[in-house]
Amino acid sequence: MIHGWEQELETILSEFTVKAALKQGELLVVGCSTSEVGGAFIGSAGSFEVAEMIYRCLKKLQDQTGLHLAFQCCEHLNRALVVERSVASERGFEEVSVVPVRKAGGAMATYAFEQSSDPVVVEFVKADVGIDIGQTLIGMHLKHVAVPIRVTQKSVGHANVTLAMVRPKLIGGVRAVYERNPGNLSCT
Fold first, then answer.
1. What are phi and psi of 110, to 5 degrees?
2. Which residues pair with 120 in a beta bridge?
3. Structural domain boundaries in the chain
4. pLDDT tens string for the chain (188 positions)?
5. How many CA atoms lie within 13 Å of 93's alpha carbon, on the beta-carbon side?
6. Cis peptide bond N-terminal to 145, omega within 30
7. How many helices (H) and strands (E) does the chain have?
8. What topology does CATH give the domain 2-184?
9. From CA 60, how far away is CA 57, in angstroms rounded?
10. Which residues contact 127 (CB under 8 A, 6 or more apart)?
């Protein structure tokens, strides 16, 4: 089963990389219910085996693209996130005092915390891209404006997968211009 799920995730990440035009230095927020991947209700059957597989795929994506990863904890830790200390420092994220565990943080965030070289937990981020495996609700951690990314493979195991990227807000009114065109620079 795990091998098949890993292939599903790799297919999703491959298509996501192209469609979202992932760039070095962007922050990817990861929400994941390992319970849902395995076919159980969210928060009821966390699996480190599933977490390890997902982490391995995401680490490979990170190595290929230069993305930074932020792993969302479960609702029992108010959906705080595991990041590397260097990322938190570089981006000005405020560290909170907690260590995720399977029953308070979730298997995925706990596994990511244990695998990170210098992990911290932060309460809030504004990520550039996101992947939500199992409907864990990552929207609160995405910059405005989130844009869904549609891919062919829509699940990993039994869990629905939702992908998003962000774009800058379109501000202004009827006279606003959203793409640079030298002919639009007139002040008349």
1. -65, -45
2. 83
3. 2-184
4. 898 999 999 999 999 999 999 999 999 999 999 999 999 999 999 999 999 999 999 999 999 999 999 999 999 999 999 999 999 999 999 999 999 999 999 999 999 999 999 999 999 999 999 999 999 999 999 999 999 999 999 999 999 999 999 999 988 888 888 888 766 555 55
5. 26
6. yes
7. 5, 9
8. Rossmann fold (3.40.50)
9. 5
10. 26, 27, 28, 29, 70, 138, 141, 142, 143, 166
Q: And the tokens for 169? A: 């807000």
Give the Cα separation of 117 and 73 in Å (integer).
18
Which tokens is 67 given? 């993305």
Say how far apart CA 58 and CA 109 lie, in whole Å: 13
> What pTM was computed for the model?
0.92
